[in-house]
């Protein structure tokens, strides 16, 4: 309350002249564009931290392989399963060494690229295809909708592992093919979520209003329906990030996914599995990287959900003033 | 002093927005006594609904903030009471009828349950609550009340929803009823019934009624005292009679002067051929015939008013013609082509010529879009209308024309008052420069001064650009001022149609006669006489 | 409604057929089961004999015709490896999976909805933050971590629960707890998000104006409006469980369909793969029909 | 009841079919418990081949072996054991209506069983089969009534009978009262299946199970844990038909570029031995004169240089194929090998694959687009190299990387020989392959780890990989 001007000033001259403007006239000017987004980000400390973390991850993904490739693949059996937090082997070993004595920190940084490529590729791919199909199924005619939904049923009951075996057996295990497999298996969730929401949202009055204005289907779908559904899709997508990374790990474990000497966090987790009870750090750090990434994405998507929603945005805009 | 039932002292409310702080209410004070009706009149957006919400503890805080004041209920300051205490008062001791019924009814529950819930929330048995709900629905004139209890909000007409809200608020016979524009969507006959229902309740229980309205006739008919608000301030108080005859504040005077129904009636010119010919239009909702074969013509540049009973199918006509729903049978020829058989693609091309202002403005505005985006969407869809560089200018112009200010362009729909939203919807329809605008209760939420301004604007557009209006309204004085011809509807049928003069001066159908007789006059004296006569009639 | 169900059943049958065709032909592109079934030092003659016995030498299309022919007589073929009718093997396992899925999803649904709704109501407050972060950790942690840590802590250290296996009710606790974590996190997040939006709706104000208590405002008025995406995600997670909870089954020695499916796929035991897919597909189809019915029940506006 | 043990295995057998007992998960349950064989290889002492259902055997004629069967033996279904049963068991295993795995050991030999009398049976072979009694350690005997299809209710002469099989959950064996031999101490055995080695270990720790025959070396840290040679040999099979692997210097370089000692006690368990042959030292003819080549990266690099100077394309990319989960630490092992080989100048690409794909590289026809090293394991605990040599080193062997006339000849001769001659021939072959041909990159003889609970007394042996006789378990 501290910063509000006192109420006792009563009506000003201006208000008397143009009463309408008086109520509406902003007392302070609002910033716009990027500044405003940043300010909203700063208003949510957790989201800010998340964003910073993700920036670091992305930097690792871009730069890691350039600088650390050597270090991350140099075996050194003397540092085998070196415990974490010991600095005598150098900073790279701060998180410990793996079963071949390679510094875990370097490997995690190194693995960020593959991991992000796979996870982002699979999640973005499935979300894009899934929600597009869902929009079509929800908005198009009965027949198209029915066909798409049954297709979703088929994908949903097609075991992802079988798909992986088929694709990776016939097309060799590469990152691209892995992304393909993971993306296909995740399509139904986006498809079904989108369609269900479209069925409801398309009945809303503002959609009808847009129809009356002559808006094309595409416009109605993307401008009016999608923004309502997007937050939910984003929530699912961010959690799917974790799912995809772990699914990839499971495939590696079964011998069908990405395999050494390539590295991903998932692969590191699956390799560390055998050592869980003796050298926990082998699986722990890459697992933690997965958790932190997912969590950051999710907190950021929570933030976005608020920032994108005009009726919620005040939570961020008045930020520090009053929070609950 | 403290024996006022409800007293508001020096109440101020403000909202934080991206553009800064909006002061919605600036230190208002008034009081309400037992059995009394206090009308709050005022400009659209002057803080009437916000102050009512403050009483009900319904302002979202933040972004809202009550910066000063007291709300004394039976001497206790509600602002200091705990949430639980206030919850216990809400619905039972203090009730509210919301301005925008569609949004305020829960879309996924049957209305019967929603009405009964008020009683159940305060510890009444289920059977009792449902009985009461049924009785109330009958009282507010919902047809086939028993069956309607199981229906959902979207299956009712605008006016019916409003009556459902009223029933919900009355369920527990509260001590205070806050009615925010309770009759905006009601035709005058139903409006009269509702007002007399409220009056009966007042007599029976001593209920204090806070009546927020812009309808001077309603004030004249029902209010004991009135408060006039402007720009978040109370500018004048007094009895309706005092205000009507000796208003001192310039705004009050402006308001009274703007009361409709006094101008000259328009004479329809014969000549231009029909642009819209509706023939034998029917609509069937699972056995219920909402439209039973409606036929009429519209000419270019003409205003055809549709008046009639609430629930008689007025909005349905609009929805069918615009293909928001499919007609059961019939034709609607637009410039010779049947709209009802067009493919969505063909229809898309025609849409630019036919626009609509929806009855529920709130729901028809996309909550994710700013006002600027909402209005300029027309030009995004039809890029040939206006080059992008001119959009800001034109948005500002349109906002100005409907009585809003250009700064509003940055705000989002939920940050506006009911009347303001309605004006945004009007501005959006105008942005397209269509040939026909269907206005479904398009000015019903506006105070008379703004209403006059908007009607003026529409009239000018009609005269200059030859835009035709299908003007669905229940407000007879406005219809009288604005329309060329009038259709009168009842129970899905057109009972009478003719020129304004003919309808207003020589009504033939009994329903039309009743409708006209139930009309309210903004002069409290005139209204008092009519009322006396009516009571005398009832007494016999 | 009956008409709709009928139509849906037929179109689901078509999907099932498509699924069978797809799986049948695609899976046969993934290598020769004889090579996997027989030891590496088995001779070509033995392999040939194996293929002959199991009809793998015929053209694939002939094999498919024979399979369909048997299928209409409800004969799902024999498991290559187990020398038993494939459907018996699958049904045995599926019962376990079904129970596991049912119990887990019931618990998850109830818990996620309650916690998610309450978190949405207190958005930004400590409860919300706590619930979110905790559930997110759960949802993104590798499930074998949770499983192994569970065993180490509750079985080995405290000796409260059996490490693994089946038999008593205690044997179910660890597997269910491990399965619980991920869907709980996911559904909780979806509930929370959806509820935050719904709680801002005007009808919530109406309810409060009526004096409805917080609990029914959340769980009656708002929740139902927020349920559409939630139900979809519940369905997705349930489908994942019906397809088998591989890690849990592997670690806890739970005889469900997930491990069976993996083993059959890795060993190219085609008949078991097909039977397992059909059984789970039918379950998933039925579930999806129920979900679509639930949509209509929840939201009257979708009904038409 | 009280004398029951619970044994936790890594996977549930698909079948409990006696004629499939060479599969280790079946063998551990069936061999010596439900079903018995005519002869048995002593793995605890050094008695060599011991009688079991056959009391004695001898050669009658050049190509005929005669077995004298034990009398008074009954099957668990009550029927008496006689020569007809042996004949039927053999024919059943050979039948082309089912795919019995043990039949592969009789491949390429014409064997005709002939019942002499109730307790005597002759096996006539073409060509002569000097190790037929050894082969008889594999033939599980079933009653003559057993149909020629896979059974789920195995009947045998062993001390135990299968009493319950809850698919996916457990298999229970119950001690028989009418067993011909000494009654074992353990009254019943309950087999349960857990795929995760650490769970198996935990189950012993919590007392839920008594014996876990194979746990991970990483978990083998307590007093309950015992290591045993598990008869598996890890090696890299070289396909010598492709350059540069056709050059012996390159093959030698491969062998000395790997610091095998560095693996032992780190990635691989303590007790792992460096291999100089595909077979373990206890095998007949194993050659003590072959010595593991010492780690010498400089020399390896020099050899490569030398070969390069002679125009050998040593820079060609060589594909190293490993199988995930082949043994604990497989991936790490292959990664380390790759890195060691790269260090001396090889151009190695590592690819880890699953079983089905591995099989494509492992067996003929080989990939011919690129030189390939296939990492694999071979297991032969049967005491005679014949079970290995033809497949792995004969020109026609399905997994042979070499095509060498001398090796072919030695293999053929040794297979037909008996006694010391046989031993000498094998020995020569081992030496020839290792020292001259440098047929493959031999790595390790592996060890397995078992965890045994306090309540039982059991010591694992080299045979524990393929069988687990309950009679050898004592109770504390
Ligand atoms: N959430 C909000 N954020 C910002 N401004 C708001 C918000 N809610 C209302 N306002 C502003 O407060 C003022 C008062 O609104 P209120 O709804 O009380 O008007 P009203 O008098 O009821 O008008 P009407 O007759 O049109 O309904 C308006 O100018 C409106 O724009
Ligand atoms: N979706 C629906 N399902 C069933 N009945 C409906 C539906 N929509 C409208 N109705 C019914 O059709 C009738 C006509 O509705 P309509 O909205 O056209 O009334 P109206 O004339 O616009 O009334 P008002 O002035 O109250 O808005 C009403 O009785 C209403 O109950
Ligand atoms: Mg208002
Ligand atoms: Mg209407």
Automatic annotation (TrEMBL), chain A:
Compartment annotation: Cell membrane
Pfam families given in the database record: BPD_transp_1, OppC_N
Gene3D superfamilies: MetI-like (1.10.3720.10)
Annotated spans, Disordered: 1-26
TM helices/strands, residue ranges: 46-69, 117-141, 161-185, 225-247, 279-300
GO terms of biological process kind: transmembrane transport
UniProt membrane topology term: Multi-pass membrane protein
GO CC annotation terms, alphabetical: plasma membrane
Residue stretches making up the ABC transmembrane type-1 domain: 112-301
Coiled-coil features, chain-numbered ranges: none
Record bears the keyword Iron: no
PROSITE patterns named among the record's database cross-references: ABC_TM1
Composition-biased stretches (Low complexity): 16-26
Record keywords: Cell membrane, Membrane, Transmembrane, Transmembrane helix, Transport
Listed Polar residues bias regions: 1-15
Family annotation (CDD domains): TM_PBP2
Family: Belongs to the binding-protein-dependent transport system permease family.
Name under which the protein is recorded: Putative D,D-dipeptide transport system permease protein DdpC
Organism name: Pseudooceanicola marinus
Organism classification: Bacteria, Pseudomonadati, Pseudomonadota, Alphaproteobacteria, Rhodobacterales
Name of encoding gene: ddpC_4
TrEMBL record, chain B:
Keywords: ATP-binding, Hydrolase, Nucleotide-binding, Transport
GO biological process terms held by the UniProt record: peptide transport; transmembrane transport
InterPro entries tied to this protein: AAA+_ATPase, ABC_transp_ATP-bind, ABC_transporter-like_ATP-bd, ABC_transporter-like_CS, Oligopep_ABC_C, P-loop_NTPase
Compartment annotation: Cell inner membrane
Membrane topology according to the record: Peripheral membrane protein
EC number(s) given by UniProt: 3.6.3.-
A GO cellular-component term linked to this record: plasma membrane
Entry's Gene Ontology molecular function annotations: ATP binding; ATP hydrolysis activity
Broad EC category: hydrolase
Residues covered by the ABC transporter domain: 8-256, 276-516
Similarity comment text for this entry: Belongs to the ABC transporter superfamily.
Name this protein carries in UniProt: Glutathione import ATP-binding protein GsiA
Lineage: Bacteria, Pseudomonadati, Pseudomonadota, Alphaproteobacteria, Rhodobacterales
Automatic annotation (TrEMBL), chain C:
Recorded topology in the membrane: Multi-pass membrane protein
GO biological process, alphabetically ordered: transmembrane transport
Signal sequence annotation: none
Coiled coil: none
Main location, first listed in the record: membrane
Record bears the keyword Lyase: no
Compartmental location: Cell membrane
Transmembrane segments: 98-123, 169-191, 270-298
Keyword set, alphabetical order: Cell membrane, Membrane, Transmembrane, Transmembrane helix, Transport
ABC transmembrane type-1 domain boundaries: 94-291
Keyword field contains Transmembrane: yes
Domain of life: Bacteria
GO CC annotation: plasma membrane
InterPro entries reported in the protein's UniProt record: MetI-like, MetI-like_sf
PROSITE patterns to which the protein is assigned, alphabetical: ABC_TM1 (PS50928)
Family: Belongs to the binding-protein-dependent transport system permease family.
Protein name as annotated: Glutathione transport system permease protein GsiC
């Amino acid at each position: 309350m501290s910063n509000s001007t006192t109420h006792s000033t009563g009506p000003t001259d201006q208000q008397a002249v143009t009463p309408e403007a008086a109520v509406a006239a902003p007392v302070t000017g609002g910033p716009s564009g990027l500044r405003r987004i940043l300010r909203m980000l700063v208003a949510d400390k957790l989201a800010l931290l998340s964003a910073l973390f993700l920036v670091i991850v992305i930097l690792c993904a871009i730069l890691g392989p350039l600088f650390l490739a050597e270090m991350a693949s140099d075996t050194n059996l003397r540092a085998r399963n070196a415990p974490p937090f010991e600095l005598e082997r150098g900073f790279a070993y701060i998180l410990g060494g793996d079963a071949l004595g390679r510094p875990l920190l370097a490997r995690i940084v190194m693995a960020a690229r593959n991991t992000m490529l796979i996870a982002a590729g699979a999640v973005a791919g499935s979300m894009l295809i899934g929600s597009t199909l869902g929009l079509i199924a929800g908005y198009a005619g009965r027949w198209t909708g029915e066909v798409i939904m049954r297709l979703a049923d088929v994908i949903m009951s097609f075991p992802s592992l079988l798909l992986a075996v088929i694709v990776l057996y016939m097309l060799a295990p590469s990152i691209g093919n892995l992304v393909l497999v993971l993306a296909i298996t995740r399509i139904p969730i986006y498809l079904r979520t989108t369609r269900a929401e479209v069925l409801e949202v398309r009945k809303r009055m503002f959609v009808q209003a847009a129809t009356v204005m002559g808006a094309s289907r595409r416009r109605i779908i993307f401008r009016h329906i999608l923004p309502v559904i997007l937050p939910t899709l984003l929530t699912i997508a961010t959690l799917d990030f974790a799912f995809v990374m772990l699914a990839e790990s499971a495939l590696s474990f079964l011998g069908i996914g990405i395999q050494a000497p390539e590295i991903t966090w998932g692969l590191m987790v699956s390799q560390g599995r055998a050592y869980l009870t003796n050298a926990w750090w082998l699986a722990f750090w890459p697992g933690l990287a997965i958790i932190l990434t997912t969590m950051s994405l999710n907190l950021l998507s929570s933030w976005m959900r608020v920032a994108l929603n005009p009726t919620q945005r005040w939570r961020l805009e008045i930020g520090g003033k009053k929070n609950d | 002093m403290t024996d006022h039932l409800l007293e508001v002292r020096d109440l101020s409310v403000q909202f934080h927005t991206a553009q800064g702080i909006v002061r919605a209410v600036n230190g208002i004070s008034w009081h309400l006594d037992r059995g009394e009706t206090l009308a709050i009149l005022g400009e659209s957006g002057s803080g009437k609904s916000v102050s009512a919400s403050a009483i009900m503890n319904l302002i979202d805080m933040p972004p809202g903030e009550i910066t000063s004041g007291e709300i004394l209920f039976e001497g206790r300051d509600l602002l200091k009471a705990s949430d639980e205490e206030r919850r216990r008062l809400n619905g039972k001791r203090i009730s509210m009828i919301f301005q925008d019924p569609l949004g305020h009814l829960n879309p996924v529950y049957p209305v019967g349950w929603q009405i009964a819930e008020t009683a159940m929330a305060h510890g009444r048995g289920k059977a009792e609550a449902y009985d009461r709900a049924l009785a109330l629905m009958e009282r507010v004139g919902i047809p086939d009340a028993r069956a309607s209890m199981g229906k959902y909000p979207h299956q009712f007409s605008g006016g019916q929803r409003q009556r459902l809200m009223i029933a919900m608020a009355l369920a527990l016979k509260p001590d205070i009823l806050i009615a925010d524009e309770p009759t905006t969507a009601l035709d005058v006959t139903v409006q009269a019934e509702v007002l007399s229902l409220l009056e009966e309740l007042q007599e029976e229980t001593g209920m204090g009624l806070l009546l927020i309205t812009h309808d001077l006739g309603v004030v004249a008919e029902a209010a004991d005292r009135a408060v006039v608000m402007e720009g978040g301030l109370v500018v004048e108080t007094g009895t309706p009679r005092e205000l009507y005859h000796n208003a001192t504040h310039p705004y009050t005077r402006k308001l009274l002067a703007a009361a409709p129904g006094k101008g000259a009636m328009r004479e329809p010119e014969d000549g231009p051929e029909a642009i819209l010919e509706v023939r034998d239009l029917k609509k069937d909702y699972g056995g219920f015939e909402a439209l039973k074969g409606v036929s009429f013509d519209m000419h270019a540049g003409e205003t055809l008013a549709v008046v009639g009973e609430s629930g008689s199918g007025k909005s349905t006509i609009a929805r069918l013609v615009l293909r928001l729903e499919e007609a059961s049978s019939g034709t609607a020829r637009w410039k010779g082509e049947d709209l009802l058989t067009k493919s969505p693609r063909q229809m898309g091309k025609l849409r630019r010529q036919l626009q609509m202002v929806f009855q529920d403005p709130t729901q028809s505005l996309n909550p994710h879009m700013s006002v600027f985006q909402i209005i300029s969407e027309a030009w995004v869809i039809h890029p040939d209308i206006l080059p992008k560089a001119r959009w800001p200018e034109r948005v500002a112009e349109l906002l100005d024309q409907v009585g809003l200010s250009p700064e509003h362009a940055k705000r989002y729909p939920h940050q506006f008052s009911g009347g303001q939203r309605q004006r945004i919807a009007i501005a959006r329809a105008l942005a397209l420069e269509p040939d026909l605008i269907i206005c479904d209760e398009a000015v019903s939420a506006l105070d008379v001064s703004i209403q006059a301004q908007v009607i003026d604007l529409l009239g000018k557009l009609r005269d200059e650009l030859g835009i035709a209006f299908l003007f669905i309204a229940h407000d007879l004085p406005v219809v009288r001022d604005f329309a060329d011809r009038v259709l009168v509807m009842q129970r899905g049928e057109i009972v009478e149609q003719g020129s304004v003069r003919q309808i207003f001066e020589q009504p033939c159908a009994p329903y039309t006669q009743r409708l006209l007789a139930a009309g309210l006059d903004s002069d409290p004296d005139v209204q008092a006489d009519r009322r006396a006569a009516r009571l005398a009639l009832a007494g016999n | 409604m009956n008409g709709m169900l009928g139509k849906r059943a037929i179109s689901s049958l078509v999907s099932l057929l498509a699924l069978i065709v797809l799986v049948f032909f695609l899976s046969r592109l993934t290598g020769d089961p004889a090579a996997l079934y027989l030891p590496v030092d088995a001779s070509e003659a033995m392999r040939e004999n194996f293929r002959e016995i199991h009809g793998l030498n015929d053209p694939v299309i002939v094999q498919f015709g024979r399979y369909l022919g048997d299928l209409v007589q409800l004969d799902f073929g024999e498991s290559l490896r187990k020398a038993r009718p494939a459907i018996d093997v699958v049904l045995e396992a599926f019962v376990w999976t079904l129970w596991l899925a049912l119990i887990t999803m019931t618990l998850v649904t109830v818990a996620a909805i309650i916690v998610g709704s309450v978190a949405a109501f207190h958005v930004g407050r400590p409860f919300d933050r706590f619930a979110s972060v905790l559930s997110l950790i759960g949802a993104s942690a590798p499930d074998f971590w949770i499983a192994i840590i569970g065993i180490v802590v509750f079985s080995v250290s405290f000796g409260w629960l059996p490490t693994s296996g089946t038999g008593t009710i205690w044997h179910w606790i660890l597997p269910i707890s491990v399965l619980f974590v991920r869907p709980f996190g996911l559904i909780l997040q979806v509930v929370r998000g959806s509820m935050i939006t719904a709680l801002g709706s005007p009808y919530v104000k109406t309810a409060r104006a009526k004096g409805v208590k917080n609990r029914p405002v959340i769980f009656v008025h708002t929740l139902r409006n927020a349920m559409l995406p939630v139900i979809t995600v519940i369905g997705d997670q349930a489908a994942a469980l019906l397809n088998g909870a591989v890690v849990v089954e592997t670690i806890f020695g739970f005889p469900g369909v997930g491990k069976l499916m993996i083993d059959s796929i890795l060993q190219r035991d085609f008949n078991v793969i097909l039977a397992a897919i059909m059984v789970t597909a039918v379950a998933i189809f039925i579930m999806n029909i129920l979900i679509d019915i639930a949509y209509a029940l929840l939201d009257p506006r979708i009904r038409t | 009841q009280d004398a029951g043990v619970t044994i936790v295995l890594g996977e549930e057998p698909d079948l409990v079919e006696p004629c499939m007992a060479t599969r280790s998960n079946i063998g551990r349950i069936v061999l010596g418990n439900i079903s018995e064989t005519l002869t048995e290889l002593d793995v605890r002492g050094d008695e060599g081949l011991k009688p079991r259902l056959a009391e004695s055997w001898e050669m009658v004629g050049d190509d005929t072996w005669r077995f004298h069967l034990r009398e008074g033996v009954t099957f668990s279904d009550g029927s008496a054991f006689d020569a007809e049963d042996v004949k039927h068991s053999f024919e059943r295993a050979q039948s082309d209506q089912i795919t019995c795995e043990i039949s592969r050991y009789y491949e390429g030999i014409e064997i005709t069983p002939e019942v002499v009398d109730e307790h005597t049976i002759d096996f006539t072979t073409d060509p002569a089969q000097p190790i037929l009694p050894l082969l008889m350690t594999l033939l599980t005997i079933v009653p003559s009534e057993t149909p020629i299809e896979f059974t789920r209710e195995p009947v045998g002469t062993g001390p135990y009978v299968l009493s319950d099989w809850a698919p996916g959950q457990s298999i229970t064996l119950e001690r028989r009262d009418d067993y011909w031999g000494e009654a074992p101490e353990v009254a019943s055995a309950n087999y349960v299946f857990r795929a995760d080695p650490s769970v198996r270990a935990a189950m012993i720790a919590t007392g839920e199970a008594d014996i876990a025959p194979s746990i991970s070396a990483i978990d083998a840290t307590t007093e309950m844990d015992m290591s045993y040679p598990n008869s598996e040999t890890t090696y890299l099979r070289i396909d010598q038909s492709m350059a540069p692997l056709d050059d012996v210097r390159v093959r030698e370089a491969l062998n000395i570029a790997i610091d095998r000692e560095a693996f032992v006690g780190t990635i691989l368990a303590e007790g792992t031995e460096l291999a100089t042959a595909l077979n373990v030292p206890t095998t007949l003819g194993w050659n003590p004169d072959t010595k593991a080549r010492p780690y010498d990266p400089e020399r390896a690099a020099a050899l490569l240089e030398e070969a390069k100077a002679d125009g050998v394309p040593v820079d060609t990319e060589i594909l190293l194929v490993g199988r995930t989960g082949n043994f604990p630490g497989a991936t790490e092992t292959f990664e380390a090998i790759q890195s060691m080989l790269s260090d001396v100048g090889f151009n190695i690409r590592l690819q880890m694959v699953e079983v089905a794909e591995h099989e494509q590289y492992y067996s003929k026809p080989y990939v011919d687009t690129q030189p390939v090293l296939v990492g694999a394991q071979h297991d032969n605990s049967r005491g005679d190299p014949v079970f290995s040599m033809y497949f792995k080193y004969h020109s026609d062997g399905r997994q042979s990387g070499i095509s060498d006339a001398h090796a072919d000849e030695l293999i053929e001769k040794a297979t037909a020989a008996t006694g010391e001659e046989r031993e000498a021939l094998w020995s020569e072959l081992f030496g020839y392959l290792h020292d001259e041909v440098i047929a493959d990159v031999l790595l390790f003889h592996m060890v397995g780890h078992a965890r045994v609970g306090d309540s039982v007394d059991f010591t694992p042996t080299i045979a524990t990989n393929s069988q687990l006789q309950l009679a050898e378990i004592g109770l504390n």
